[in-house]
């Protein structure tokens, strides 16, 4: 999983948690306007709600497909109606943005949110968001090579130790043949 996606997934989880845990009107009154503004800036800087961009288009496409399958003769009307209604619902995205900001405001102080926004709006922060996926891919490759080397070395070392232990506990004279005959005595 990429760093960028991890940040987004964490943000999404945090935002979803906030919707359920902090959706009461009393909570929103506890957050000052400045704190909420800083939270909105941080949410925008880290693209916290971007993973949800496709929810409405996907829901509209699925509904349109389902309705057209049931009523193929109404395809044009269905397409037009679904598009109109989906566009009308797009304004509700602001609700998600507000809930995400409230979630961040609950966890971070106004100062911390301002620092988060400043960092992710800086060239370095933007580079982290943009390059995080490539860095994570390289890290995962390195971790896989490291894991394979560890597993190989562990198996080799354990095998050597077990072989030495088996050799040390084996009787000094040769084992009896599997056919049940006795081995010949050494000739002088």
Automatic annotation (TrEMBL):
Record keywords: Signal
Signal peptide interval: 1-28
Superkingdom, taxonomy of origin: Bacteria
Compositionally skewed regions (Low complexity) per UniProt: 163-178
Region annotation (Disordered) ranges: 162-188
Ranges of residues in domain DUF2059: 95-152
Protein name: DUF2059 domain-containing protein
Source organism phylogeny: Bacteria, Pseudomonadati, Pseudomonadota, Alphaproteobacteria, Hyphomicrobiales
């Amino acid at each position: 999983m990429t760093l960028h996606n991890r940040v987004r997934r964490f943000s999404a989880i945090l935002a979803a948690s906030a919707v359920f845990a902090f959706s009461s009107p009393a909570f929103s009154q506890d957050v000052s306007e400045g704190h909420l503004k800083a939270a909105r800036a941080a949410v925008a800087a880290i693209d916290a709600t971007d993973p949800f961009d496709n929810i409405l288009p996907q829901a509209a496409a699925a509904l349109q497909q389902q309705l057209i399958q049931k009523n193929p003769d109404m395809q044009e009307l269905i397409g037009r109606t679904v598009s109109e209604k989906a566009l009308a619902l797009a304004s509700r995205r602001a609700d998600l943005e507000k809930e995400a900001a409230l979630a961040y405001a609950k966890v971070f102080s106004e100062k911390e949110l301002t620092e988060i926004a400043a960092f992710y709006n800086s060239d370095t922060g933007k580079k982290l968001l943009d390059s995080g996926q490539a860095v994570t891919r390289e890290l995962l490759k390195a971790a896989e090579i490291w894991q394979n080397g560890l597993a190989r070395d562990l198996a080799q070392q354990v095998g050597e130790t077990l072989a030495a232990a088996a050799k040390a506990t084996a009787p000094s004279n040769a084992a009896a043949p599997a056919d049940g005959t006795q081995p010949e005595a050494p000739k002088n």
